[in-house]
Design brief:
The N terminus is likely disordered. The protein folds into two domains: 240 residues, SGNH hydrolase (Rossmann fold, 3-Layer(aba) Sandwich); 215 residues, no CATH class. It contains eight helices and 24 strands. The chain has a seven-stranded mixed sheet, sandwiched between helices.
Length: 487
């Protein structure tokens, strides 16, 4: 009798093909990527794209976005400029999903917008993108699944007459039309934020992008300020270092979008005890502190923060970490020469009753004229409630004793605000915000003060006034407010 193992045809098992997860990369030039390729990073092994041959193939050095944009993409700013955040996203996704093949469909088109008639339904970029996605999905490998649409756009609308005012309605309509026409109503959609302090930044557009996840299910936000504010190499385009950081933020936004199946309830939102921390002495570019009270740990805890600072030259915080979590900047900082700037942040910090704080500024700030104000809150959704859920204002020298801004609120929303100003002579001014829980920090060794306040809205208000009042005339004051919606 012969005993053995047959290795014949019937005894072999065919290895299962790796699952393929497909992502659409859409928008304008910052979705294409303009940074020169320094060859530090590469796509993860096995990454495929819907390429120039209208078929799936191994990805090239630069993601192909269709015949309408290829020549422009490769020519600007140089032939070697083929590095985009899609490469860093693919690497981050593959690292968290071992054994998965990443597939990419590029449909971005540089210099395009809504007000310039490219991304609205029936217009060129829209039509080309929809057709290209349909063709790519029809030809996809067996079993491949579309997992997300990753979008970065809005700079063109921000610098075109009429663009900012029309952007909110245009983007909302686009999301409805594009998802319907591509059959992706159940697919997560992630929108990327914009770099502050460029000629193309527009506050209205940034507010719309940040608020979409609180208005449209299965959407998420990719933060351009985490873990540190992105930088550019020309007037508008992210440099290679920023693109490496930005790619993983799309993965972070993708997870949030997948979990964003409802738009919240009626509350309640509750708040913990505010923390007012003055940063001591002359502050260099970075500062750390430990042992700060962060309230009671909970899965739904958000830490809201306001960073106030003043410098002879324009200064603002470019990075904030709370309890080991990279905070997301909300809106934009109030920058300007000698401005007592206020920048708002939020961080999801579920664990730890105390934590470390780390803040980095765009440069050194004046002695005893910077602070971090913290407020733990529970039962609030991350991100601003609507595109009118952020407001800010700033004043000049000898401004006066009051400064305000407006935000829209619904019943049950949380309004969080902070303000700062410097008196012309010591002692420092004191003051209040017209919100419950208002507190003032008079900076020791300085004539600057910072204020924090919050309130739960009892009723809806279209244009609620948030006002900071000071005990004396202040110079270069700032105020900023944001609105959070109940979970």
């Amino acid at each position: 009798m012969q005993i053995g193992l047959s290795l014949g045809r019937q005894g072999r098992r065919r290895a299962a093909a790796a699952p393929v997860h497909i992502f659409v990369i859409a928008g304008q030039s910052n979705a294409l990527g303009r940074a020169a390729d320094d060859s530090v990073d590469s796509y993860p092994a096995g990454t495929i794209e819907y390429g120039a041959g209208d078929s799936w193939a191994p990805v090239g050095p630069r993601l192909y976005h269709g015949a309408w944009s290829t020549d422009e993409a490769l020519a600007l700013p140089a032939a070697g400029a083929n590095f985009g955040w899609d490469r860093a996203f693919a690497a981050a996704y593959a690292a968290e999903n071992p054994g998965v093949t990443v597939g990419l469909i590029g449909v971005a088109d540089g210099g395009t917008g809504f007000v310039t008639n490219q991304w609205n339904k029936g217009q060129p970029s829209y039509t080309q993108a929809v057709a290209r996605i349909a063709a790519a999905l029809a030809a996809r490998p067996a079993g491949a699944v579309l997992k997300g649409i990753l979008w970065h756009q809005g700079e063109n609308d921000g610098v075109t007459a009429g663009g900012p005012a029309a952007y909110d309605a245009a983007l909302m309509q686009f999301l409805t039309d594009f998802r319907a026409d591509t059959g992706t109503t159940d697919v997560p959609f992630v929108l990327g934020g914009h770099v502050f302090a460029t000629g193309y930044y527009n506050s209205e557009i940034q507010r719309t992008i940040q608020s979409i996840p609180n208005r449209v299910p299965l959407t998420g936000y990719a933060d351009v300020s985490s873990p540190v504010e992105a930088t550019i190499f020309d007037a508008v385009h992210l440099d290679a270092a920023s693109l490496r950081r930005f790619g993983p933020q799309y993965l972070r936004g993708l997870k949030a979008a997948a979990a964003n199946t409802g738009l919240g309830g009626t509350g309640p939102i509750t708040a913990g005890t505010p923390v007012l921390y003055q940063i001591p002495g002359t502050t260099p570019a970075t500062h750390t502190a430990s042992g700060l009270a962060l309230g009671t740990p909970a899965p739904d805890r958000l830490i809201l923060a306001a960073v106030t600072c003043r410098g002879t030259n324009a200064r603002w915080p470019v990075s904030l970490t709370i309890g080991g979590v990279d905070a997301v900047r909300v809106g934009e900082p109030a920058s300007g020469s000698s401005q007592c700037g206020v920048t708002l942040f939020q961080a999801e910090v579920p664990e730890g009753a105390t934590g470390e704080l780390a803040v980095a500024f765009s440069g050194s700030v004046n002695t005893n004229q910077s602070a971090v104000l913290l407020l733990p809150v529970y039962g609030a959704r991350p991100g601003i409630a609507t595109n009118d859920g952020f407001g800010s204002a700033k004043g000049g020298t000898a401004h006066g004793t009051a400064l305000g801004c407006e935000v829209d609120v619904a019943a049950g929303d949380l309004v969080f605000a902070a303000a700062a100003g410097i008196a012309s002579s010591s002692p420092a001014a004191t003051g209040t915000l017209n919100l419950a829980g208002s507190q003032t920090l008079a900076h020791a060794g300085s004539n600057m003060c910072s204020q924090i306040g919050f309130a739960i809205a009892a009723a809806a208000e279209d244009g609620r006034a948030v006002t900071a009042s000071f005990s004396k005339t202040v110079n270069y004051p700032s105020v900023a407010a944001m609105v959070l919606r109940p979970r």
